[in-house]
Structure formats: structure tokens, C-alpha cells
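User: Can you help me understand a structure? I only have the sequence.
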Amino acid sequence: MSLAEFNANNAKSLEQLREDKAIEIRKFDDSLLEALGKTSGEVLAETGQKDPLTRRIYASYIGFWRRANHWADLSERGYLNARALKFPYGDKA
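Assistant: Let's start by predicting it. Here is the structure, written out as C-alpha cells:
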């Protein structure tokens, strides 16, 4: 399944959720996400030091994570910033 198909299905599902007045859509608070990220990072770091194989896997994962974040910052943030621009069509709702 492609990313475009996932996005199309997610948009359709979100529309259905928004139409249900019994559902309140909320964003996770940044402080909660930061706490979850801190704890998961601690668990990953501890787990990644158990033996030579897990150290290699952990090092590989962290290297990928850093590269992927650099790419995401450029591509995804740029894409979302471009989509937030005011174009003479569509609805910004």
C-alpha cells in the first residue's frame, strides 16, 4: 500500500470522526510527548548496551534516526510549510 493511499484513507477517516459530535479530537500535549521520548530513549539506550550485537544494532538505529530526522526536517517540514501558504483555491478549514 502506498503512502498516498494511507493519506487518502486517513483523511476520509478523520472527516468521519469530525462529523461525530460525541468525539473530541485532541493533540497530545508537548510535555507528554517529551516525557515519552525521554523514557523511550533511556530504555533504548539501556537495551542497546546489553551485548555486542545489540550495541551494533543500537548504533545503526541511532545513525539512521539522525539521518532520517535531518531529511524529515528538510522535506516534511518544508512540505507542510508550503501547504500552509495561502493559495487562491481550496478551504483551509
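Now, to help you interpret it: Helices lie at 3-19, 30-47, 52-83. The radius of gyration is 19 Å. Let me know which part you'd like to focus on.
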